[in-house]
Every structure is written in structure tokens, then in C-alpha cells.
């Protein structure tokens, strides 16, 4: 039964993402807002809903390590697998505004997460011992930064409306009602499909005797990141590269600031040393992808393959540790 639910979840994710991309792209044109802004906000929030649901539920139940491992695993997956797969479909071109502002901001907040996760103690980390706590004040700091990010993004969108009016693009324009319908149906499919995939994949993993930590960092993280993967790949296939890249960067920002912010604000999150190491890996992955994107302003297929190989190495590392 779990295998049938897994297949049904994939179908809902794929069709949901298809509708969601069409509806979101149409809304961007109707509102005269650049696709990159829609990707950073509406699409990023929609595809981050599974992570939000899983992490907040885990925090409420006191299973805090699942909340953090889910976010870290999802963000690493987004950078290496989602962008890697998008590059295999079509070379991914990132706008200069994204490389200048949002992408560096995503690296900046990952560094803050590392400092908070490590209790600002390099000596403690190097010793490889002890527990770490992401407290309520850290969660409130993330929520404050999230509010600043949203304000800046909306301000940029309003300032950029005249630029979109001057562009001549070939796109599928839907009526406002139909656009809203596409978004709602797509979002429902994404969330429901993500839930089915996570639940069924976790049950299958448990049946094979895999640990809960491994499941949280890999199976659950992969499952909750499937919306980002499917949405971005579908967007890349339709030539909506701005939507694809904006979705990944926006989702990573949402995951850290909103999801960990809400989770830590509910109850302090107790971590072990592996969470600190995984945060370091996230920062390194972010820098590698950023350098690849900014060097030629485009991520090509060979870089996409390298990203996927890097993720495979990370997966093996988590499996063996």
C-alpha cells in the first residue's frame, strides 16, 4: 500500500507543480511583477509548505532534531539536486539582481544559523562534544529577518513593475479567476502529494530498519523538497528560469527564517554536533553554487552533473556516519 501511495504522491506533485507554475507565471504578468519576485515569494512559500508542516509538527511534539535536519537536508537538496536537475533540462541563467542580493542573503543567514547552532563556540565544535541549543531568541531573530526580507522583496516588486510593462514576452496569460484556481489546485496537489510521499517513504524506510536521524535528514528532507524539485524543473522546461532559481533561493530563505524561526520560537531546539557539521556543509554548498552561477552568469549541464555527484557524496556521508 505504501508503494501505491508513493506513486500517487508523485503524480499529485507533478500535476500540482504544473498548475502552480502556470498560475503563478500568469499572476506575475497580470500584476506586472517580474517572475523572479513571484518565485521568491508565492512559489517559494507554496513549495515550502511541506517543510513548514513537518518541522512545526516536529517542534510541537518535541522531536526538534527532525525539524532542523529536515530544513538542513531540504536546503542542501534544493541547491545541489534541484538546480542540478534544472541545469540538465536547460542551462540555468540567474539574474544579476538575484546574485547581488537574495543569493548572498541566503548564505548570510546560513552563517548566522551556524553561529547560533554552535553556541558561538569554535572550541566546543572542534572538541566534537556537547549539545547545542537554538533558542527562542534565535527563532525570534529569524522571524524578524524574515519580515525584513518580505518587505524588501515587495518593495523591489513595486519598483520593478514598469520594467515588466516594457518587456515583450510570449507567455500563457490566464484570467485572474483562472490564475487563482490554478494556484489553489496546484498548491493543494503539491501539499497533498508531498505529505503522501513523506509518509509512505518514511514507512518504507522504517521497514528497512533505517534510523530516524537518517530518515529526517534524507528521506523526509527529500520528500518535502520534491515540490521545489518538480516546480523548478517544470519551470525550467517552460523557459521560466527566473521562476526556477527564485524558487530555490526563496525556499531556502523561507526554510531557515520562517520554519526554523517558528519552530525555535515554539520551543528551544536541542541539537547535537552533526547538526553543526551539516550547517557547514550547507554553507559550502551555497558558496559553490553561487560561484558557479556568478562566474558565467549561467549554470550549465556539466555543473549540474557535478552538483548531483556532490549530493550523492553527501548522501553516502550521512548514511555511513
Automatic annotation (TrEMBL):
Domain of life (superkingdom): Bacteria
Entry protein name: Calcium/sodium antiporter
GO terms assigned for molecular function: calcium channel activity; calcium, potassium:sodium antiporter activity
GO biological process: one example: intracellular calcium ion homeostasis
Main location: membrane
Listed InterPro entries: K/Na/Ca-exchanger, NaCa_Exmemb, NCX_ion-bd_dom_sf
Transmembrane segments: 71-91, 103-122, 134-152, 173-194, 214-236, 248-269, 275-292, 304-320
Keyword Membrane set for record: yes
Record flagged with keyword Coiled coil: no
Gene3D superfamilies on file: NCX, central ion-binding region (1.20.1420.30)
Mode of membrane association: Multi-pass membrane protein
Entry's localization field: Membrane
PANTHER family noted in UniProt: INNER MEMBRANE PROTEIN YRBG, SODIUM/POTASSIUM/CALCIUM EXCHANGER
A GO cellular component entry from the record: plasma membrane
Lineage: Bacteria, Bacillati, Bacillota, Clostridia, Lachnospirales
Residue stretches making up the Sodium/calcium exchanger membrane region domain: 3-153, 179-319
Keyword terms, alphabetized: Membrane, Transmembrane, Transmembrane helix
Amino acid at each position: 500500500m505504501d508503494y501505491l501511495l508513493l506513486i500517487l504522491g508523485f503524480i499529485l506533485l507533478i500535476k500540482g507543480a504544473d498548475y502552480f507554475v502556470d498560475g503563478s507565471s500568469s499572476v506575475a504578468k497580470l500584476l506586472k511583477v517580474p517572475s523572479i519576485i513571484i518565485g521568491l515569494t508565492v512559489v517559494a512559500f507554496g513549495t515550502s509548505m511541506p517543510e513548514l508542516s513537518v518541522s512545526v509538527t516536529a517542534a510541537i511534539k518535541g522531536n526538534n532534531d527532525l525539524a532542523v535536519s529536515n530544513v538542513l537536508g531540504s536546503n542542501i537538496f534544493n541547491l545541489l539536486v534541484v538546480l542540478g536537475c534544472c541545469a540538465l533540462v536547460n542551462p540555468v541563467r540567474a539574474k544579476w539582481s538575484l546574485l547581488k542580493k537574495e543569493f548572498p542573503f541566503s548564505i548570510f543567514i546560513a552563517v548566522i544559523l551556524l553561529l547560533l547552532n554552535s553556541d558561538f563556540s569554535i572550541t566546543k565544535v572542534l572538541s566534537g562534544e556537547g549539545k547545542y541549543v537554538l533558542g527562542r531568541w534565535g527563532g525570534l531573530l529569524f522571524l524578524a529577518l524574515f519580515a525584513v526580507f518580505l518587505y524588501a522583496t515587495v518593495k523591489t516588486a513595486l519598483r520593478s513593475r514598469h520594467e515588466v510593462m516594457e518587456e515583450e514576452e510570449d507567455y500563457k496569460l490566464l484570467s485572474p479567476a483562472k490564475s487563482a484556481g490554478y494556484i489553489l489546485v496546484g498548491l493543494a496537489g503539491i501539499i497533498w502529494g508531498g505529505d503522501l510521499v513523506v509518509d509512505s517513504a518514511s514507512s518504507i524506510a522504517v521497514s528497512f530498519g533505517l534510523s530516524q536521524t537518517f530518515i529526517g535528514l534524507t528521506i523526509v528532507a527529500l520528500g518535502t523538497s520534491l515540490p521545489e524539485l518538480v516546480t523548478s524543473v517544470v519551470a525550467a522546461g517552460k523557459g521560466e528560469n527566473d521562476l526556477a532559481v527564485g524558487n530555490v533561493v526563496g525556499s531556502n530563505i523561507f526554510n531557515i527564517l520562517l520554519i526554523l524561526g517558528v519552530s525555535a520560537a515554539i520551543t528551544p531546539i536541542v541539537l547535537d554536533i552533526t547538526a553543526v557539521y551539516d550547517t557547514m556543509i550547507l554553507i559550502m554548498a551555497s558558496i559553490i553554487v553561487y560561484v558557479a552561477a556568478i562566474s558565467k552568469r549561467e549554470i550549465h549541464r556539466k555543473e549540474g552533473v557535478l552538483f548531483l555527484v556532490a549530493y550523492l557524496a553527501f548522501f553516502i556521508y550521512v548514511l555511513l556516519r
